[in-house]
Prior knowledge:
This protein is an alpha+beta fold. Helices cover 38% and strands 27% of the residues. Strands 14, 15, 18, 19, 20, 21 and 22 form a seven-stranded antiparallel sheet that branches.
Amino acid sequence: MSISTTGIQLDRGPGWVREAVELISSMRFSISLLTLISIASVIGTVVKQNEPAVNYVNQFGPFWAEVFTKMGITSIYNAPWFIVIMAFLVTSTTLCILRNAPRMLGDMRDFKERVAEKSFAAFSHKGDTTLSMDGTQANGVFQKLLVAEGYTAKATASADGATTRYAARKGTSNRLGYILAHASIVLICIGGLLDSAVPMHVQAWLGGKEPLRENMFLKDVPPTGRFEDSTLSYRGNILIPEGKRASHSILSYRDGTLVQQLPFEIELNRFIVEYHATGQPKMFASEVIVRDPDGSTFPFRIEVNKPLIHKGVAVYQSSFDDGGSRLKLKGYPLIGGRDYSFPLEGEVGTSTSLTNQSESQAYAVEFSGFRAINVENMARANGMPENSELVEKRFRETVAAAAGSAAAKEAHNFRNVGPSFSYKLRDQAGQAREYNMYMVPVELEGQRVFLAGMRENPNDQFRYIRFPADENMELTGYMRLRAALNDSTLRAQAADKFATQALPTDGDATQRVQLRDSALRGLELYAGNGLYGAQAQGGYAAIARFLEQNVPEGERERAADVIMKVLAGTVQLINDMARQRAGLPPLQQTAENAQFLQSAMNAYSDTVFFGAPIMLQLAEFTQVQASVFQTTRAPGKYLVYLGSLLLVLGVFAMFYVRERRLWAVVEPDPQQPGASRIRFAVQARKRTLDFDAEFDRLMAAVARLGGA
């Protein structure tokens, strides 16, 4: 029996209804839908799903990121059009099964004994042999042969009992392959729909749920913003700091979130993380205590490939984060002529107020992150731009990108550069910039520097400034020089001293005064106007602007060279004066100290763009880790497992089980009294080389019966 690709044909009803039913129930429609789902699945594999919006903007640009988001490509398996295609595929495949399965099952049970003896001559695979035995013996040995060859036979004797007709079959389970394969598609699709966001959205719509769009305490979440434990399926996230417990998960819903009640409570005792030499996490696990509502508890260790499964909810180890580490900081001013620092304490995830005494300007410092370990590729780090440029790409690359043979080759370049923390400085107008600071100096291009990153938009990469470390591996030396550059008295003294050293007192006094004025003007341009942010002026940009406005274009290069040499000399004198005022000896004339001064000048020039009146440095910390879990309830997974099993069995039956049909007649031989004659024919749905070989073996077996 051939399988029809057409659909169900209705005898009555409007024409468009008959056509729609025929189309939806047809095999060609199912294949088209399956092709669309396959293409969509490939897209969903290539485009990472459910990533933050900024990731898509960075990867595809704002235009295509918006297009992909509106088309649902960024969350393709929950996109309405994908769900509709899945629903139609389930409907179409189910109708195909209902239309074809009864006929197939009937065909499997049918021995097709109606084939006439006269038609044997039309078969390409047929045989005829004589057995030197009576009919009873011949039927007995022939039936044993059929059983040995795997056939199930049905024998029909003639009225006089002299002739027996056989109809046999084997491999009819091949037809089951079609039914199992199509049933597997239905089960997998239904399981996928059950485990998708569709049940949650339906339940939220029926229950009048509204997404939460702002942070609030759990006790303040209204009933419209939370689900009880009766949700059919969901997939959420939960962050638990060490020593804390939680019994709710956060679900993404529309443009906000919903709170999902869990049937138990999880307490995180300890979070464990180990690293490879490359810095990639080798293993992270969470030691938790699970508490049921009845008070019973049990410990469990959740690992990446070892989830906690309890009461129908699976808890996976997803990631890790900071759980509120306590930080002790040292603050440095970046404007003004005072050389001082101040202590500050905070906790990640909280904020504190800060006042600029000179302007009575209040700021909020929001502590947003902390990392105790930063394993960096120092080979790439040494290729960063010079300090005179704000670094356009964040220094810290994701070490997880190094894998395989490339990781083995570069493993020796990775080094832990120490802790870092990030914070936001928010002004009274609500505007904020984010900063990322490393605690200890990092060696780059043979020099120890402190890295301070800044970005104005969360979508941007951090741009880093290198602040040189002094002889004590601290920021004190640079901050002392910064304050001295903003002291007008020291600037004037340094200009006087530079002019006196360059031109002796017995020289031309007019030239000495002109040199002093030029040196002072260069210092004042470089030192800036003492402001920050958009109003800030100073650094190399101020000198370049001055040359552009006051020096002809053909003479600018030579003038710039002179000004930079004079500026370097006066900055060195200011640094010596500042050190003397602090009770320290002047820096010796060494290449290392010259590099420190040059790097300090570059860093000071870049701080014009730093956009903040202060800078915070990490002094001490007490780390508190947090574990990020993914909580799922997926009742449809068992249907998916069953569907996968049926798919394997169905494909195996269709491709590796061959259907055979055999018809035979055992009758007395008219030429030899007392002997019996066997005539038979064999048919296969598909003629193959295997079938030809099988028929040859059957012929040989029947021939041996004749010689027995």
